[in-house]
Amino acid sequence: MDKLEVGDKVPDVFHDFIQLSDKKVVLYFYPKDNTPGCTQEACNLRDNYLVLVEKGYEVYGVSPDTEKSHQSFSQKYSLPFKLIADPEKKLILGFNAWGEKKMYGKSYEGILRKTFVIGSDGNILKIIDKVDTKDHTSQILD
Which residues of the chain have pLDDT under 70? Predict the structure, then answer.
């Protein structure tokens, strides 16, 4: 899989999940619903959602969780944006958001927390590889 760079077209699989419009898309990948960092990140985006919308963004969160898990997570935290269930990891793999991680000295494969900002033309405008879950909106808008 080729590494995606700013200026690249989005992978074809993107169009299976999201329809481009005149807005910019924030596509953020996160490991799991209802975990501390993922909840913090989602709530930061929720709390700043109106600012993002006013600046012309649509927000989508992606994880391998089920649609049922997403519905519960979204309702629990009143998330105003769409969460995409990707249990087959089509989007996740298409955007190179799966790879080696380390925790407590052990290596394992999992979701790489990263965000892509995509223009209405389908080109990648920004890639955030080191997500600050507490202040992710600022990273998107900077």
Answer: 1
